[in-house]
Amino acid sequence: MRSEVMNFFKLKQTFDYLGYFETPENTQLIENLKQDLSQGGLIVVSGIVGSGKTTLLLHIQKEL
Hints:
Number of strands: 0
Largest sheet: none
Radius of gyration: 16 Å
Helix content: 40-55%
Strand content: under 5%
Number of domains: 1
Structural class: mainly alpha
Order of helices and strands: HHH
């Protein structure tokens, strides 16, 4: 399926070397989420496909 998507969008470069780049906003968001979680808060993470929800949750999981 990946090759079909790449052909459809006429992409030449693969996505094997994508990374996560933390911005000051991301850092503040993670700190706020950690504080809320440590106080027993309920957190809902939503967003469009590819917006980084899973990456954010994995990062928070490592921190905790």
